[in-house]
Design brief:
The structure holds 2 protein chains of 2 kinds. By secondary structure, chain A is an alpha/beta fold. Chain A folds into 2 domains: 238 residues, Rossmann fold; 120 residues, Rossmann fold (3-Layer(aba) Sandwich), CATH 3.40.50. In chain A, 43% of the residues lie in helices and 20% in strands. Chain A is built from 14 helices and 16 strands. The N and C termini of chain A lie far apart (62 Å). Chain B contains 13 helices and 2 strands. The N and C termini of chain B lie far apart (49 Å). By secondary structure, chain B is mainly alpha-helical. The chains are: A alpha/beta, B mainly alpha. Chains A and B meet through strand 7, helix 7 and helix 8 of A and helix 1, helix 5, helix 10, helix 11 and helix 12 of B.
């Protein structure tokens, strides 16, 4: 027993001394738990960026970067906190790419990252609460807050000269959060939400709900629900009663099954869903295929999160979180040379020679406010019973 | 003048028309519940799932007919598939009675045992239904959707409020009327119907008068299954068919049966409409109506809604509690539960 212990200690020493100049990045994702089907691709996305920068030899005068995976479980805050603690104290990571779900991200940020002064960039936590959290400037995310979609929708409503709207949302955190955000933003630019009422999913009849919505009135009906659930029922009942002609459809309502189910009465309704027309998305997808994984949901965001960390370290000339945290926004935003996936070595060279980069990445990223993705949304309209893209914003 | 016409159109569109259709569906359901209660003396909680099962058979046959190209446009194909659905529900009910309920009848179990058994049966049928057709939403109404569209009504009358009448609503009310009339005729005019009422009144006396109880039980199940298949199919035509919905539908159906007076067929019909209309009246927002009648903004900016639509089902229970407190036998003095 003693021998094994001695060997472990010895090998740890050897390992440490061998990689003295190397930088470690923790990848804290829910490899077990409710999103375990997404996380392998997300981790591969981040590791792709890390490998690319490491192999280029341009990172901090030839240092290598190593990825260390840790399990956030997505739902168990205590387990995620313990893993983060281990990543930082025992593995010695300089920064954490993660966590994934909003709940565990908040817990890790408050209990570990802020206390230890380690930068965290989450690829997928979208809760609006993370925008205002106390983070000492250490927390960033490459996905937009749910609050952002409300802003985009309010803007579209304004541009279409819609003055008042009724709103029905699915009775859960997503629906409520989105509805609140739409209402706040729409009222801030002079619009009026006549009623904001919830609906339960899985009911057979939404006639009474629609009756209340119709009495409140409004130019359009905003339906913040799910397309195969109550959202569809509310739209169908509204059309049946002649209550509303035009519907506003946030991301949960957009899919081919909705126009197929409702038919031509849905034509003219419009909405938004996350999306970008940036060439970065296509480039990332082909890089992913070459590397042998799928550019699944949030894999591009993971690539971008890791890439931002690496470039910020390069710009600060150190892997010390408290120093490079201020450089994350600088490398992500203009001015500078635009950087797409697969061009990290070019970016690192530009930074090393004192130039500036504007990282576009796989998701056309632009960090705003407290260090979160501005979020690119695609505006769509239903035309001839087809979802037709209008533009990106 | 135009203000009051508009407010009447509003009421017709959001309360009268949907209320008549929903009330008919509840009335048919409650009639089936009341029938079993009158003859077999227990609350059959599996009634909602029998409705679902009958509707499922109808839908499957509808799909088959559609595949064969059989149609009765502008009426929905489901109407000609309905007899098969009724047959399926009858078979199911007779099988259930043979396998489950007849055992407890021989044991002379009390009604609470029956009630628990029927809840178990409810879960079994629900499981079978979802196993066969799946839990998804199904829209099988392939007929003409509207008799009167809201926009057409507005253009016709020049009013600013439209009235829409869906063909499924008209079919619902019409078929409910026919079915109810047939059941009442059967109960009051035919020999078998009279023997059923006699059995329900006093089983022992009926037995002594030479009425075969087994035959009465079978006929009660046949009628109940027929009513269930019709009401389930009509509900699915009017709204959309989703197996889990019927689990929730049992509650207003029982409220309707109890409010009307359990065991009283007329009470079931009245109870169905009372529940349907009070759900709609109490959760309706009267803002626009007040604006038409009294002028815009006289009563302030509120929605003038008594109860949020989230509490729709609560309305039936409030009425149920009131009825049980004041007149436990229901409006038409059925049996006391």
């Amino acid at each position: 027993m003693k021998k094994i212990f001695a060997i472990t200690v010895l090998s740890a020493f050897i390992a440490n001394s061998a990689f003295a100049d190397d930088v470690k990045i923790g990848i804290l994702l829910g490899f077990t738990g409710p999103i375990e089907s997404l996380t392998p691709d997300m981790a591969s996305g981040a590791e792709l960026a890390i490998k690319e920068a490491s192999d280029s030899g341009a990172f901090m005068s030839g240092s290598k970067i190593l990825a260390v995976r840790g399990d956030s479980t997505c739902v168990d805050a205590a387990a995620a906190t313990a893993t983060a603690e281990r990543l930082i104290t025992s593995d010695g990571v300089s920064a954490i790419m993660g966590a994934d779900c909003s709940g565990v991200t908040t817990a890790v940020l408050q209990n570990v990252a802020t206390a230890k002064g380690v930068v965290m960039i989450s690829p997928s936590a979208t809760s609006p609460a993370l925008s205002t959290i106390e983070d000492n400037g250490l927390f960033f995310r490459t996905s937009p807050s749910d609050a952002r979609q409300g802003q985009v929708l309010a803007q579209i409503l304004k541009e279409k000269n819609i003055k008042s709207a009724a709103m029905s949302y699915t009775n859960n955190d997503y629906g409520k959060g989105l509805a609140d955000s739409i209402q706040k933003n729409f009222e801030a630019i002079g619009g009026k939400i006549t009623i904001s009422a919830s609906h339960e999913d899985g009911k057979g009849d939404y006639g009474a709900e629609v009756a209340a919505l119709a009495q409140a009135g409004g130019d359009v009906l905003i339906v913040a629900g799910y397309l195969d659930q109550g959202g569809k029922g509310v739209i169908q009942a509204s059309i049946d009663a002649g209550a509303f002609d035009t519907f506003v459809l946030p991301d949960g309502m957009i899919g081919d099954s909705l126009p197929a189910a409702i038919g031509k009465d849905l034509n003219g309704s419009f909405g938004t869903l996350p999306g970008t027309d940036s060439p970065g998305a296509g480039k990332f997808a082909s890089l992913a295929t070459t590397a042998g994984f799928k550019a699944g949901p949030y894999a591009p965001q993971s690539y971008d999160a890791a890439a931002l960390m690496i470039m910020a370290m390069q710009a600060a000339g150190t892997s010390d979180s408290t120093k490079f945290k201020d450089k994350v926004m600088t490398v992500a935003n203009a001015p500078g040379e635009k950087i797409y996936p697969g061009e990290l070595s070019k970016a690192l060279k530009i930074i090393a020679s004192g130039g500036e980069v504007d990282y576009v990445g796989a998701t056309d990223i632009e960090l705003i406010g407290p260090g979160e993705s501005a979020g690119s949304f695609q505006e769509i309209v239903i035309k001839d019973q087809k979802i037709t893209p209008v533009r990106y914003r | 003048m135009e203000g009051s016409l508009n407010s009447m159109a509003l009421l017709a569109n959001y309360i009268l028309v949907p209320g008549l259709a929903y009330g008919s569906q509840l009335a048919l359901g409650a009639l089936g519940v009341t029938m079993i209660y009158a003859v077999l003396n227990f609350s059959n909680f599996s009634h909602g799932e029998i409705m679902s099962f009958g509707a499922m058979i109808t839908i499957l046959v509808t799909y088959w007919f559609q595949g064969l190209g059989i149609s009765v446009y502008p009426l929905p194909t489901a109407l000609i598939a309905l007899p098969v659905g009724i047959g399926g529900a009858i078979l199911l009910c007779l099988l259930l009675d043979k396998l489950v309920f007849s055992f407890y009848r021989q044991q002379r179990s009390n009604s609470v045992t029956y009630l628990i058994v029927s809840i178990g049966v409810m879960f079994v049928i629900g499981g079978i239904t979802r196993f066969i057709i799946g839990p998804d939403d199904r829209n099988f109404n392939d007929g003409e959707r509207f008799i009167l569209k809201a926009r057409a009504f507005k253009e016709m009358t020049g009013l600013s409020e439209g009235v829409a009448i869906k063909s499924s609503q008209a079919i619902t009310v019409a078929s409910a009327f026919i079915v109810v009339a047939a059941v009442f005729w059967f109960l009051s005019r035919t020999r078998t119907g009279k023997s059923m009422r006699a059995y329900s009144n006093n089983p022992d006396l009926a037995l002594l008068s030479g009425i075969d109880p087994n035959r009465v039980v079978i006929i009660a199940w046949v009628i109940t299954a027929g009513l269930a298949a019709v009401s389930g199919t009509l509900y699915g035509l009017d709204k959309s068919y989703k197996p889990l919905v019927f689990l929730h539908l049992v509650l207003p159906i029982f409220a309707a049966a109890i409010v009307g007076g359990v065991g009283s067929p007329l009470g079931a019909i009245v109870g169905g409409f009372v529940i349907a209309f009070s759900e709609l009246f109490i959760t309706f927002a009267y803002k626009k109506m007040a604006a038409y009648l009294l002028g815009d903004g006289v009563l302030g900016d509120g929605l003038l809604q008594l109860l949020s639509t989230d509490y729709k089902f609560a309305v039936s229970f409030i009425i149920l509690v009131i009825v049980l407190l004041i007149k436990p036998t229901g409006i038409f003095s059925g049996k006391s539960i």
